[in-house]
């Protein structure tokens, strides 16, 4: 009796694990994502933190921006984003509640309307799908 029960439980656990892993994927939408976002983790704009959505609205409106570095050239020195010529990317601060300075969250835009979000000070990025 026990020998029949173990494979069933193991099979059920493996199925649950497979469902969990699929549900926690990087968000890479493969063929559904624009070419610039393929192969990257993605996030829908409406799933960003409220402060990031507010920063996106400011970018769309052309300002005003609360931080002096907003709109400055992002150098991509970490090489987490596709390589482009200097001046292609610009960065904007996403306010972090409780932080006294700029915090770690940013939105980086590309000259061809790409939008990227980082919440770990450029260590990783997600392509923002709008």
From TrEMBL:
The positions making up the signal sequence are 1-27
**Keyword Coiled coil: yes or no?**
no
Pfam families to which the protein is assigned, alphabetical: Ribonuclease
Keyword entries, A-Z = Hydrolase, Nuclease, Signal
| Name this polypeptide is given | Ribonuclease domain-containing protein
